[in-house]
Amino acid sequence: MKKYSVQLMALGAALLLLSCDRERSNPIDPQAAVLVERPDTPTGLQVQPGVERVLLAWQAVDAPDLAGYAVFRSAQSNGAYGFLSGDGDSTLQITTGKVSFIDSLDAPGQTFFYRVAAVDTTGLLSDLSNFVGATILEDVAPPAPPANLSVVADETQAGRVVV
Questions:
Q1: How many angstroms separate the most distant Cα atoms in the chain?
Q2: CA terminus-to-terminus distance, the chain
Q3: Residue 7's pLDDT band (cuts 50, 70, 90)
Q4: Residue 96: is its pLDDT beyond 60?
Q5: From residue 92, how far is each of 83, 111, 159 by CA, in Å?
Q6: What's the CA gap between 129 and 62, in Å, rounded?
Q7: For the chain, what is the radius of gyration of the CA atoms?
Q8: Of 8, 70, 90, 160, which residue is 20 to 30 A from 132 by alpha carbon distance?
Q9: Hey, is 135 helix, strand or coil?
Q10: What are the C-alpha distances in Å from 73 to residues 48, 128, 162?
Q11: pLDDT by residue (tens digit) across 29-86?
Q12: How many other C-beta atoms are found inside a 10 Å radius of the C-beta of residue 20?
């Protein structure tokens, strides 16, 4: 009796494995169709720090249903990255429809890290790109003195000059 129950259990396990449906739309399953349809990950992310701003640029993703890009920022390279709203659609979590973005910050001397994802028209995000970091520059150069000044007597009011 024991011999038959072991064989029945083995047969049941084999049938269960053979009936596994890999075409289901389970986002946890790495072979699910929903992951195959996600946009490609943006590459070539570059950063250029400036005074009170960071300029980001990356390579375009070639996808017919691409809606835009989501930009994320963190204070630590391995920290939690927060979504940056921009001129895009925040309901689809799109920062911009361009391949560049300027992050304006009043935080001289602080370093921030960025990652980018492509977003399709259904709101699916690609994997996040590799991160880049930039330190916000401090404005240490004073403005230049005024140039080409002239003084002209006011023709309508005596004793008054126009600079």
A1: 122
A2: 110
A3: low
A4: yes
A5: 11, 28, 63
A6: 15
A7: 29
A8: 90
A9: strand
A10: 14, 11, 49
A11: 555 555 458 899 999 999 999 999 999 999 999 988 999 999 999 999 999 999 998 8
A12: 7
